[in-house]
Amino acid sequence: xxxxxxxxxxxxxxxxxxxxxxxxxxxxxxxxxxxxxxxxxxxxxxxxxxxxxxxxxxxxxxxxxxxxxxxxxxxxxxxxxxxxxxxxxxxxxxxxxxxxxxxxxxxxxxxxxxxxxxxxxxxxxxxxxxxxxxxxxxxxxxxxxxxxxxxxxxxxxxxxxxxxxxxxxxxxxxxxxxxxxxxxxxxxxxxxxxxxxxxxxxxxxxxxxxxxxxxxxxxxxxxxxxxxxxxxxxxxxxxxxxxxxxxxxxxxxxxxxxxxxxxxxxxxxxxxxxxxxxxxxxxxxxxxxxxxxxxxxxxxxxxxxxxxxxxxxxxxxxxxxxxxxxxxxxxxxxxxxxxxxxxxxxxxxxxxxxxxxxxxxxxxxxxxxxxxxxxxxxxxxxxxxxxxxxxxxxxxxxxxxxxxxxxxxxxxxxxxx
Length: 417
Ligand code: EPZ
Fold this sequence. Notes:
This protein has helices at 22-31, 48-60, 86-89, 99-106, 125-133, 164-175, 190-201, 233-246, 261-269, 307-315, 333-340, 370-382, 393-396, 402-408, and strands at 3-7, 13-17, 39-42, 63-66, 72-75, 83-84, 108-112, 137-141, 144-148, 156-158, 180-184, 205-207, 213-217, 225-228, 249-253, 273-277, 280-284, 294-295, 320-324, 344-348, 351-355, 364-366, 386-390, 412-416. It is of the alpha/beta class and 417 residues long. The strands form six sheets. Strands 22-23-1-24 form a four-stranded mixed β-sheet. Bound molecules: ligand EPZ.
């Protein structure tokens, strides 16, 4: 398994391009199943999870053509199976996003239940409950979701927990249902908005996107479209924290500041300077940051996918901060690893108390999940000496060419096979 070796202490300077959003591209790839017209996508990030989703869709019969480094064309005119097998789903939970489209267009689907994962049990009960409300007959047998529906019918669905992929699955299913569907307590994440914008280009009728009540009026069929995937606000936020922690000056291109309001606020609160224009953000800092407490919650509140990164920031900040995780029940796997670097963190339930220390010391640490590994990279960038991060396949799932982009900014980082 690959490792990253990082020599800490180098202030980052320079300019990098931010890639398309993994968590927008994944549902949008599944939207190709909703129509036989080709779906052409731009700004698709080159990530392991994208390749995994491509394999799953190809397994079903979707023809996928790469038309350049970040451009894909998908043709779902000849689907020969509506099954998502366990061996594919177990490596990526987002595979559940084929369920809604398959049911809506073909009337049946057999999708393996995603297992749990490092950060929590992450059930899909709300996906299933919503599809049942739309008339689907769903049974769980031998670890598979067996779903049937002659024709989905519009329904009023209240989701008692805000769920990003739940909202996305139900929005895609409703796009081809008979009648109107109202999704209440819907997710407002920018990636949900981006999927909706793509669906609307394909002919879907969707109102209220970006609010917690989304209304979808079903149409008989959807058509081909072209869509550029929105920028990845979490990748951008990760590099913004890197610039602030190392005391450098970094300009991010191809990014939208309006998707990062709360992250920008928190970084300014910690003492970083941030300027932005319509497609770039510049972060600079003297490095000595103030501790800044965060509490994760659904958009537009502080994103859970930035929690580990701000935990890292607080390990070397000037005082004490609390980091409260309200979305997932086990998203503190990075705490143990950061302690190995000398961090002073105590965990009480879903809150971590982080006392800033003068410096961290390099060590060997292990990545456990995508964003935890990002937090470890940030800690390694400021730690004294060498840090080795093992199992970095977690990073490759969500960060395109990470060591290359960090290298462009002057970081001393190398990958060893
Ligand atoms: C999406 O996961 C993202 N993944 C996650 O990003 C992100 O952390 C998460 O949303 C929260 O923002 C993708 O978009 C592919 P949820 P998702 O359904 O949709 C509970 C990353 O790092 N829940 O919004 O799976 C669930 O257990 C990944 O890129 C139910 O109880 O998350 C959790 O506590 C990690 N029943 C909460 O809701 C359900 O049916 C939010 O989960 C669904 C969810």
